[in-house]
Fold this sequence. Notes:
With 161 residues, the protein is mainly alpha-helical. The protein has six helices and no strands.
Amino acid sequence: MSKSNVMQYAKKHLGTIIVLCAVVAYIVWRYVHYINGMNQATTDYDYCHNLSELFQLNSKTVFTIIYGIICNRTYLNKQYSKWSIWLFYISAVAMLAHFVAAGYVFDYVFAHVGADHMDRIPSLARNIFSAPGFFIILCFFFVPKLIKDTLKLKQEQELTI
C-alpha cells in the first residue's frame, strides 16, 4: 500500500481509527496497571490477584483479536479466503491453550497465595479460568451464522469468477 492509499484509508475511517486507538490505549494501560500491581504487591495474595487478572486480560485480548479478525474478514471486507475458516480452528486451539496455561497458572497461584488467603482461591480460580467463557457462549450463538455467511461468500466469489 502506498502512502497516499494509507492516508485516504485513514481519512475514510477516521472514527474507527480513533476508537481503535482508544481501545488499544486502554488495554495497554490495564497491562501496565497489573504488572505494576505485581511489582508493588505487599502480600502474596496481591501478587496472585494481579497475576490472575493479567492472565485473564491476556486471554481476553487474544480472543477478541481472533474474533475481530473473523468478523472483519466476513462482514466488513466481505471476502472469502481459507483464513476465514482457519480462524475458527485457531480460536479453538487458543481456547485449549488457554485452559492448559490456566492450569499451570492456577497451580502457581495455589502454591503461592499463602495460608491467610486460602478462602479467596475460588475468586482467583474464576479469574483464571473464566476468560474464554464469553467467547464460548458467543461461539454457540454466532459461529454457525458466521460459517454460513463465510460459505455464502465463497459461493458468491465462485459465481463471479
